[in-house]
């Protein structure tokens, strides 16, 4: 996702906005926000429970505001050298911070090592989820902070030092704890699974450091993927959300939290009615685990998957392009132990339909470690169900290991594969050096892709790709590829399913099969 920027996302004390620096962006950016929210657990009056817009949101706001807090952080940051194009300030840990740091670093002179560091303060939002003083906010609001303070929404503006109970960078959530010496007003979780597109919602937070602010809108969409992480499943709302709103709650008309305001799309940094909130169905489980152990345990299946294109669906003899296509099975993982194989198409997991490769990781992550779940799949045109006992996701499990190889084949002259538009050769030491292939890579190497072939036009294949399978059958030589292609053509197939290894990852590609 390419997203440019004209203003910083968070408020900084004593610093001008980046808009004044003349930075004008031409592409969109998802802005992470920072702000607080609160709600008292009181039954909603009939006027608010009814469908449609209430006569006034005031009763709801009066009940929720006491449980909303401002989150203030202080940290030491290194000043950069003088530059004609200053980089806008992003919340630490935001998905876009690294992208824009790289972008601006390429345009700026080297920073002066003699420039002394400075103390920076940022303001965000949060809400109390338990009267004992547990506060929910975004991880990017407090990430890297030397000190965190929570400011209550009471007459005194009570300011309390906060302790970090736990953070989860994968979902951008954090749990804090304050000691007020008394019970605090708190919000309760709502069910985001029941919220519908078009339902009224209210967002509360700390935009631009102004303190508790209430805006209303509707749910514009569900299950949004904005490229922030592997578990993206955002609620989209047109309730006005601005810089400083991150960590604040999105509530339904009963006053229950159904989302945590996290990001916006904007050209200016201000609200244009496209905001995103982490759904409570995800946040509730994460926060509960952070409170219990300070960390999050996630289920692990042990597969690398991809979406299914219409061409791949045809090659796999699927009725429709739906499900998650298994490209690689982690050796020794839960999937391998259950008998899953590359080329399997996962249709459902634990009774829930898998529509694409984005939905499956969320399902697996939310499932308790050690649980035995049924996985329905299609293998070579036949429907099967296997039982998988989930493992626990570890950092090293994110990058799947390569399968062991079987040595190099004898070198040979590249073979042109008619109807596919590629030339291939066996893997020799020379070819391995030329294309920088690891020692354990096996298969047949693509040495050339015809410029006007379908594979080139769609950018599916490239020189250096290693063909591991053709039509779900292993290949070890160019002759194997020729034979599999002939077999597919004789069977009347319009597309050829290839399993490709590229830079240590396995991916399926359905390449149109043209006439010779």
TrEMBL record:
Keywords: Hydrolase, Periplasm, Protease, Repeat, Serine protease, Signal, Stress response
GO CC terms: periplasmic space
PROSITE patterns given in the database record: PDZ
GO molecular function: serine-type endopeptidase activity
Ranges for domain PDZ: 285-356, 397-503
Annotated SUPFAM superfamilies: PDZ domain-like, Trypsin-like serine proteases
Active site positions, chain numbering: 140 (charge relay system), 172 (charge relay system), 246 (charge relay system)
Annotated EC: 3.4.21.107
Subcellular locations according to the entry: Periplasm
Entry keyword RNA-binding: no
Pfam families named in the record: PDZ_2, Trypsin_2
GO biological process: proteolysis
Major subcellular site: periplasm
Top-level division of the source organism's lineage: Bacteria
Reaction(s) catalysed by this chain's protein: Acts on substrates that are at least partially unfolded. The cleavage site P1 residue is normally between a pair of hydrophobic residues, such as Val-|-Val
EC primary class: hydrolase
Binding residues annotated for substrate, in chain numbering: 140, 172, 244-246
Family the entry assigns: Belongs to the peptidase S1C family.
Cross-referenced NCBIfam families: degP_htrA_DO
PANTHER family reported in the protein's UniProt record: PERIPLASMIC SERINE ENDOPROTEASE DEGP-LIKE-RELATED, SERINE PROTEASE FAMILY S1C HTRA-RELATED
Protein name: Probable periplasmic serine endoprotease DegP-like
Gene encoding the protein: degP
């Amino acid at each position: 996702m390419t997203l440019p920027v004209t203003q910083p996302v968070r408020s900084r004390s004593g610093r001008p906005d980046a808009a004044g620096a003349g930075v004008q962006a031409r592409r969109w950016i998802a802005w992470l926000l920072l702000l607080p929210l609160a709600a008292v657990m009181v039954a909603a009056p009939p006027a608010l429970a009814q469908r449609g817009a209430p006569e006034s949101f005031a009763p709801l706001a009066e009940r929720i505001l006491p449980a909303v807090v401002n989150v203030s952080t202080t940290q030491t940051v290194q000043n950069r050298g003088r530059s004609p194009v200053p980089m806008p300030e992003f919340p630490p840990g935001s998905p876009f911070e690294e992208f824009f740091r790289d972008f601006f670093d390429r345009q700026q002179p080297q920073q002066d090592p003699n420039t002394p560091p400075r103390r920076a303060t940022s303001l965000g939002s949060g809400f109390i989820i338990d009267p004992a003083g547990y506060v929910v906010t975004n991880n990017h609001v407090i990430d890297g902070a030397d000190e965190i303070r929570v400011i209550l929404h009471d007459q005194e503006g009570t300011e309390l030092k906060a302790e970090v109970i736990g953070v989860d960078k994968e979902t951008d959530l954090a749990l804090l704890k304050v000691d007020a010496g008394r019970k605090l007003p708190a919000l309760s979780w709502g069910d985001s699974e029941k919220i519908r597109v078009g339902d009224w919602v209210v967002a509360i937070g700390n935009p631009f450091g102004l303190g508790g602010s209430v805006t209303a809108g509707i749910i514009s969409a569900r299950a949004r993927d904005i490229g922030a992480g592997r578990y993206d499943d955002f609620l989209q709302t047109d309730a006005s959300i601005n810089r400083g709103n991150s960590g604040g709650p999105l509530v339904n008309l009963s006053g229950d939290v159904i989302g945590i305001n996290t990001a916006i799309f904007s050209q200016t940094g201000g609200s244009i009615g496209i905001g995103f909130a982490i759904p409570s169905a995800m946040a509730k489980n994460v926060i509960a685990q952070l409170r219990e152990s300070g960390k999050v345990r996630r289920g692990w299946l042990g597969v690398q998957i991809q979406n299914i294109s219409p061409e791949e669906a045809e090659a796999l003899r699927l009725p429709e392009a739906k499900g998650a296509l298994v490209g690689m099975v982690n050796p020794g993982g839960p999937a391998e132990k259950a008998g899953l194989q590359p080329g399997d198409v996962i249709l459902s997991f634990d009774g829930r339909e898998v529509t694409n490769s984005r939905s499956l990781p969320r399902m697996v992550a939310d499932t308790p470690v050690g649980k035995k779940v049924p996985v329905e799949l299609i293998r070579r045109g036949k429907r099967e169900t296997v039982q998988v006992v989930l493992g626990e996701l570890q950092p090293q499990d994110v990058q799947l290991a390569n399968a062991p190889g079987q040595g190099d084949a004898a070198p040979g002259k590249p073979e042109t594969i008619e109807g596919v538009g590629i030339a291939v050769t066996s893997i020799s030491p020379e070819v391995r050096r030329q294309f920088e292939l690891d020692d354990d890579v096996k298969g047949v190497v693509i040495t050339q892709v015809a410029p006007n072939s379908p594979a080139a036009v769609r950018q599916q294949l490239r020189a250096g790709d290693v063909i591991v399978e053709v039509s779900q059958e292993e290949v070890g030589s160019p002759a194997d590829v020729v034979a599999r292609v002939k077999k597919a053509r004789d069977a009347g197939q319009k597309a050829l399913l290839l399993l490709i290894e590229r830079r240590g990852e396995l991916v399926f590609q359905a390449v149109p099969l043209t006439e010779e």
